[in-house]
Amino acid sequence: MNHAECAAWLRERDGFLLLTHRNPDGDTLGSAAALCSALRRCGKEAFLYPNPEIREKLRPVILPFFAPEGYAPRHVLAVDVAAERMFPAGFEGPVELCIDHHPSNTRYAGELLLDPDRAACGEAVLEVIRHLCGEPAPEEADLLYIALSTDCGCFQYANTDARAFRDAADLIEAGADIRKWNQLLFRKASPGRIKLEGLIYGSMSFHHEGKVVVALVTDEMLRQAGATEDDCDDLAGLAGRVEGGEVSITIRDWPGGASKVSVRSGESFDSCALCARFGGGGHRMASGCNIPVPPAQARELLLQAIDEVWA
After folding, report:
1. Which domain covers residue 46, as residue numbers?
2. pTM of the model
3. How many folded domains does the chain comprise?
4. Residue 165: burial class (beta carbons within 10 Å; 0-12, 13-18, 19+)
């Protein structure tokens, strides 16, 4: 469906529960909360599923949208959730509608609004809100700016295009407090985060004549730095800062002896194709996957796969 059809679908229904994905980032949280707010402005009953993995930095602005215990929705939506394996911990059941921008979306929902040319899912939600109830309210503008700016790396990532800047300008005009959010999300960091970044830079290895950069993030690094999960936003962007690098891979310790992998690349390499070999997906220049081995072993498997994907 397109944006207008999605808005019409929402307008005809009531009693919504909106899902965000596992290990939620600013895009899934901001997009879902903004849509939840817009639905409430239309007189609808709408809540977010209480994702247990939400981090402290965004908790104060997202928590008011969480569903009360025992809430029984009539309709379940997913926002920025590309596959069923990404459903938030504790959720089970069918999803009627998905709003997404990942080309790798598995089409698990009964209805799908897929907008793969958008830099962030927040842009697709912005269009839906415009069809649903006009321009976003100031609170929704804040939430959508969080969504857009975090998925674009404060408008530094390769997915940033002219439309992303135009949408950001519209959100500012609608009341988004960009000074507040840029300071909170991009300009300030805890001492633990600063120390952790130093350890990550020290872990980097370089391959394919410096075109491939791999960074490891272990639980021991977090312990040494005194860092918490709240200090782990956008770690995948650090390896991409290396001059000459075309593919950057960040590999994190994950429960059960596994590794969580984030891949970023330029146009010359298909990150999604690499992650798909390990059951993951995403975008051509930004994708992820989980591999059931520790980080050092995952690095070797990924380097082998890069040779095949790049061949």
Report:
1. 3-186
2. 0.85
3. 2
4. middle
